[in-house]
# Entry
Amino acid sequence: MNAVLASAQTRGAKALAGSNAQRFMAYALLVAVGALVIAAPEQAHAAAAALQKQGTSALSWIKTGVGLILTVAVLGSGVLAAFGQMSWKTVGQILIGCIVAGMCTVVVAALYTP
# Structure
């Protein structure tokens, strides 16, 4: 019984040592990044500008794709309702959902614009 307990304590100590080493590396990396930002803030701003340009490009692609999907949803549901395969109530629900989904970027921009 004592041998099993001693073995469990040894394994726990090794696991704790590993987590301390990982914690130390995380703090060391945090200090290194902080020192770089303090020493060369222009590099940090240049990286942020490049990321903002890529983010804007990705957002425009997403808006284009979502706009296409919403257009197909509205047109498809309208055609189905015109031929009696779907109720007009469901088309109205789809239309309201598409308006909400299409306006979400405008709402987010309005909330986060200073």
Summary: Residues 41-82 form the longest helix (42 residues).
